[in-house]
Amino acid sequence: MKNLFNSRKAVFLYFLFFLSNIAFGQSLKIKWSDNYGREFSIIAPSGEFNYSIISGDRIEYEQYGDFAGQVVKIGNVKIEYERYGDLKGKVAKVGYVKMEYEQYGANKGRLIKVGGLKIEYEEYGPQAGKIRRTTGQVVY
Fold it and tell me: Could you tell me which residues are beta bridge partners of residue 49?
């Protein structure tokens, strides 16, 4: 009886932690690097941006206004942000790689394009908002 209880408990914990992360924690980390070895990544659908630096890099920050404290340059790579509207503050461009966000509908505000990589989301039903597929590639 005790073994049966433990196996049920293990199955329950599996469903609780593993499947809930798949169902509720879906995200896609998109990574690319420049010719000098700096690595950049952005997470879909949120648009959370991360970067690495190389020896000798200087990081420049916005000094004034609404964006004070945000990184605007890493070495020789400029970082641009959305300045207006609902997307204000989200990364718009890293070097030559442009980001696009959904402007309308159920997936408004979600990251839909990074350079040449397109991200498609489910629009209807119980899977709405989840990533359906990606096509293309990020080209720096």
Answer: 42
Q: What is the pTM of this model?
A: 0.75
Report the 10 Å Cβ neighbour count for 45: 20
- Phi (first) and psi of residue 8, to 5 degrees: -65, -40
Listed in sequence order, the DSSP H helices in 51-114 are none
- Give the side-chain half-sphere CA count within 13 A for 125: 4
The C-alpha angle 133, 134, 136, rounded to 5 degrees, equals 155
Structure tokens at 15: 């469903």
Quick: pLDDT tens for 24-60.
Answer: 557 899 999 999 999 999 999 989 999 999 999 999 9
